[in-house]
Amino acid sequence: MLAKRYTGKKLVDNIFATSKKAKQAIVKFGKENVINATIGSLYDEDEKLAVYDVVESVYRNLPPEDLYAYATNVIGEDDYLEEVIKALLFEDYKEKLKGLYIASVATTGGTGAISNTIKNYMDTGDKVLLPNWMWGTYKNIAIENGGQIETYQLFDKNGDFNFEDFKDKVLELAKTQKNIVIIINEPSHNPTGFRMTYEEWVKVIEFIETIKDNNLIIIRDVAYFEYDNRNEKENRKIRELVIGLPKNILVIYAFSLSKALSIYGMRIGAQIAVSSDEKVIQEFKDANAFSCRTTWSNVPKGGMKLFATIMKNPELKAKFIKEKQTYIALLSERAKIFLTEAKEENLEILPYKSGFFITVPIGETVDKVIEDLESKNIFVIKFDTGIRIGICSVPKKKIKGLAKKIKESIEKFKNQ
Ligand SMILES: Cc1ncc(COP(=O)(O)O)c(C=O)c1O
């Protein structure tokens, strides 16, 4: 019955499925006896969804027409579109990024931003370049749009960004396709918490500038950037690396309010496109507005108004930043417990710098290890041949001792 291009599609969403198992275990054995490290949302120490006080109070006080009416434009509210650019590229972006053309489009979360971008820039049959450790939905979006995937090794043997493999894969794709869509998920990479250094970014930018005969569309997935602790000076320096990029390079940031404001279910995000060419940006706006209209039409006005109201009001913004700092501190305390214990236990982990997740590489016995952990009421997410621990949702008291339990499970199957 399905259209030919859609036959064989079946969503295997490992995250939602494992999360369900964890919830069932909680019902059976009680919350205190289960470690549910499957959740990808920020939870507080009482294992409740982290809700910002400022978000709650602003949202509840929005006028009804802001909550129930259609958005003003298909691509989103004007003030929202401006505030997302400022949140990412700083207040002074017009002055500091002079010469660049910048536009934003509101999307249904970061997912909508990535799918709009792949849909509009990947040619049918082409490959999208992804890191080998990745959020699995990227792959599905490529497939949904008639594409395929290629992966670059995210890490080299020192645990740094594997520039050589990245470069080789781009050059390889450049031989066979005109457009190359590339995803770099950074900072607070899912599933590892990896972050690139400024020097690594410089290398990437210097390399892509040498590509003359292809169009490069760099999606920088910044879904978790609000919870990263890279200093502002470095963030500003990285922002400025796009100045002077030739017009065959288009950078599109995928922005997510799910994480930024902890409003996952509201489904708000944005594509923020930056180019040295006005026509490229006009085309971006035209094509993506068309895609918005034909898929979700427009995104909830209330979520956009919520963000714009907080960001435009210095007092509310200060409250938001203050609350956010407490969550960043909480994440770093949780990470510290796990990382310290992992070191004591000699448990290998992938390079973690910040964010919601830590990944333990396991190898071929990964399924056995997961099964063993589940038998002990510890639920984690399988990513390739590793397991992802969502430190975003596990309270400190349950993180204590977790590295040891994981190590024991790994050891159990080591020589099998
Ligand atoms: C790496 C990454 N990018 C993007 C998203 C998109 O999130 P949302 O569509 O809720 O904004 C997620 C969500 O889990 C993610 O992990």
TrEMBL record:
Residues 81-406 form the Aminotransferase class I/classII large domain. Its EC number is 2.6.1.-. It comes from the Bacteria. One of its GO terms (molecular function) is transaminase activity. It is an enzyme of class 2 (transferase). Its cofactor is pyridoxal 5'-phosphate. Pfam families: Aminotran_1_2 (PF00155). InterPro entries: Aminotransferase_I/II_large (IPR004839), Asp_trans (IPR000796), NHTrfase_class1_PyrdxlP-BS (IPR004838), PyrdxlP-dep_Trfase (IPR015424), PyrdxlP-dep_Trfase_major (IPR015421), PyrdxlP-dep_Trfase_small (IPR015422). Keywords: Aminotransferase, Pyridoxal phosphate, Transferase. Belongs to the class-I pyridoxal-phosphate-dependent aminotransferase family. Homodimer. PANTHER family: ASPARTATE AMINOTRANSFERASE, ASPARTATE AMINOTRANSFERASE, MITOCHONDRIAL. This is Aminotransferase.
